[in-house]
Amino acid sequence: MSSPHSKGLSAGVAVRSSTRVLVRRLLRERLRGYFVPIAGALLCMAAIAAGNAGIIWLMQPALDDVFIAGNEELLYPISLAILAMSVLIGSAFYGQAVLMAWVGQRVVADFRRDMYAKLMSADLGFFVNTDTGNLISRFTSDTSMLSVSLIRAMTGFVKDTLLLIGLVGLMFYQEWLLALIAVFIFPCVIWPIVSIGRRIRRAASVTQARMADLTIRLDESFPAARLIKAFRMERNEIDRANSAISQVFKRSYRAARISAITRPVMETLGGTVIATVILVGGSLVIEGTTTPGTFGSFIIALVRAYQPLKALASLNNLLQEGLASTQRVFAVLDIEPDIVDARNAKPLSVPGGEIRFEKVRFCYNPGVPAVADVDLIAPAGATIALVGPSGAGKSTLLNLIPRFYDVDEGTISVDGQDIRQVTLASLRDSIALVSQEVTLFNDTIRDNIAYGRQDATMEEIVAAAKNAGAHDFIEALPNGYDTPAGELGERLSGGQRQRISIARAMLKDAPILLLDEATSSLDTESERAVQAALDRLKKGRTTIVIAHRLSTVIGSDLIYVIEHGRIIESGPHAELIAAGGAYARQYALQFVDIENAPESGLAAASDAAE
Would you call 514 exposed, middle or buried from its count of C-beta atoms within 10 A (0-12, 13-18, 19+)? Predict the structure, then answer.
């Protein structure tokens, strides 16, 4: 059985994987598909290394044969050879830069595409337990860091390693004793570089986590600008944002300070190597064991080898920063939904639309039931209402029908078919949802209505809008159906947004309709218009309604009263009023003015309430 307790992503620091594991996964899952451009970039890097080594190698005959021996015949050939190699180096550098930039941006785009697809398949519980700002931070900050740091580090690692190998090989070819001295000292820096890299990765992980906290703060405060100003909380929000910004600054500065340690270590190493080589090499030149040209070429090779070595040390810092972001991105890609199709799931068939709950129990938190022992029947084509105080479990029951969550115990069936044994796609295709919180996208009115049916014709969209009572106000908009709704539908009133939502449900034309407080936030005039549209939408469908305003459910075929996650009463409106129980008391409280109450049976309810 699927677990309903989906966990979210923490904005904090994730459990760290080793550098080797992360790099191998990157190579296996993300870079293997780009073998051709990577191979081209590697060839360019090899050409850069060969060109640099070749120029330095030519320094020996230039010094010994041209400047010291005065051989004029070699002057032009050596100069032209150096020029040709410089052109080769420049062209190869351009080629590898362009190719690796394409690979890097392609990998980031692949990450973002796959992350979004993974999130769209995640359970609803995951989004409930994860801050939106945290997810946005992983899409933006982490993937950008991955692109800048990781791809640059991997590119530089190959290029500088090839160059270092070429120069060290040249050094051994020219003077093996001096090369042994240099190579003996170089490994002494490996341990501090690796140690510094680990510290940088930890610092980068914390920095990215604090950046996620800042993103969460911005994501919360900007949409709440109206509330903030209404309660004059600007100073408070500024202080909270400043606190988050200060944390980002402190962590970023710490990471930069750790990274800066690399430079003095490398400078000390370089000075030690060069001083030692000059001391020993100078003695060899004085003794006549080696020529000034050979020693000069060796020194140039040594100094040039020192540059890629320093770059490799810095690149390790970049690599660790990139891996910290990569790990946070992989955490999103590793999300697995709990609510999936059963092994032999079949498409749902809805000849009637009867919905049945049998001994249903569900907990958001283990051991604390949100609903328990619920037996409920919604006859095919009927309208049933779920009423009760806030927090009673009404919305939970509604969310269990499309399997936004799975039950812990019991079964829910549609026309005798356990909803866990049918495909999710067919189940949700059979359900239309209209809720109090209307979600509209920053797209045209037409596209918002057709959101559930991308292939709908304009005639069908207009027909749905007319049935929802939305056509007239849509036509009055500046661009009619092509008018943008704005972010979250902000350019429309509450009643207009709700009627767009109803038009969307009408266009979907599903046999099961779920209405979750669809009119609770509307004024009286808007509520009447929306209620009339809902009455048209209910016809011929099995409808489950959640409502606090009991006046909207009087005409329901069956009403279930829920308290503390259990059904305590059920029956038609008149029977529940006559019974004088919880429903009658709640009804009496909502219609204190008996003479203006819509039902003559209210007097009995009022007496029962007393």
Answer: buried
HSE (CB half, 13 Å, CA atoms) of 395?
Answer: 12
Query: How many whole angstroms separate alpha carbon 11 and alpha carbon 597?
Result: 52
> Domain holding 475: CATH number?
3.40.50.300
Read off the pLDDT of residues 556-571 as tens digits, 9 standing for 90 and up.
899 999 999 999 999 9
pLDDT single digits (tens) 568-592: 999 999 999 999 888 898 888 876 5
For the four alpha carbons of 539, 543, 548 and 551, in that order, the dihedral sign comes to: positive
Q: How open is the CA angle 477-482-484, to the nearest 5 degrees?
A: 75
Q: Are residues 326 and 444 in the same domain?
A: no
Residue 549 DSSP SS3? coil
Token digits for 436? 């109090």
Strands (E), 494-563: 512-516, 542-546, 558-563
Beta bridge partners of residue 544, listed in sequence order? 384, 514
Give the Å distances, CA to CA, from 566 to 387, 391, 397: 11, 11, 10
CA 145 from centroid of its chain's CA atoms: 14
Report the C-alpha gap between 454 and 316 in whole angstroms.
Answer: 48
Name residue 57's amino acid: W
As for how many domains the chain has, the answer is 2
Q: 440 in a domain, yes or no?
A: yes
Q: Write down the mean pLDDT value for the chain.
A: 79
Q: pLDDT value at position 408?
A: 92
d(C-alpha 475, C-alpha 501), whole Å:
17
pLDDT for 3 beyond 60: no
